[in-house]
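Private note to self, pasted from the team thread so I don't lose it. C-alpha cells:
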C-alpha cells in the first residue's frame, strides 16, 4: 500500500497534466496543522484515521468528479439514517449518496447508498477512488502516465474496496 504522501504527490502531478490539457481543473486548499487536528479531535472526542490526518496536513479538502474529501471543518456526526447513526461523515464518493465514514476510534468505512457499511482504509480509498480515477482520465484522453509517478505499480484488487488493515 502506498503512503498518503506518495499518492498525493501523484495526484498533484496528474492534476497538473489534466489542467495543462484543459481536461479538468483542481483546487488544493492549504493543509492544516497537526495542532489544529488534535484540537478538533479533543473538542469532538474522536480519533481520526491516520491516513485522513495525513491527507489533511497536505490539503484541507479535495474534490474530483463524484468524490469529495471534506475539510476538517466540514466533518459532521450523523444521527440518521439509523444505519449511519454515530458515524462521522468525512466525504462522499460516486455521487449517489455513498458516504466516506469514520467512527470515534479512528476506524474508516465506506457506506453505500443502500446503507451497507464496509470497513476499509483511507489509503485504499484514495488509491481506488481518486488516484485510479485520475489515471483513467489520462488514459481516456490518450495522455501517457508520467514515468516519475510514485504509484506506478499494479493495484491489488482482492476485494470490493481492496485490502484493509484487517485483511
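Design output:
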Amino acid at each position: 500500500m502506498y503512503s498518503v504522501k506518495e499518492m498525493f504527490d501523484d495526484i498533484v502531478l496528474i492534476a497538473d497534466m489534466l489542467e495543462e490539457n484543459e481536461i479538468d481543473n483542481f483546487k488544493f486548499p492549504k493543509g492544516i496543522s497537526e495542532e489544529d487536528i488534535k484540537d478538533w479531535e479533543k473538542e469532538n472526542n474522536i480519533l481520526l484515521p491516520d491516513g485522513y490526518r495525513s491527507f489533511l496536513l497536505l490539503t484541507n479538502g479535495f474534490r474530483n468528479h463524484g468524490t469529495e474529501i471534506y475539510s476538517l471543518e466540514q466533518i459532521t456526526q450523523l444521527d440518521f439514517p439509523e444505519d449511519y447513526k454515530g458515524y462521522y461523515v468525512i466525504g462522499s464518493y460516486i455521487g449517489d449518496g455513498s458516504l466516506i465514514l469514520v467512527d470515534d476510534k479512528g476506524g474508516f468505512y465506506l457506506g453505500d447508498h443502500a446503507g451497507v457499511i464496509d470497513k476499509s482504509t483511507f489509503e485504499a480509498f484514495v488509491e481506488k477512488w481518486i488516484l485510479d480515477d485520475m489515471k483513467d482520465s489520462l488514459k481516456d484522453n490518450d495522455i501517457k502516465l508520467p514515468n516519475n509517478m510514485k504509484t506506478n505499480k499494479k493495484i491489488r484488487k482482492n476485494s470490493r474496496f481492496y485490502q484493509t488493515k484487517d485483511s
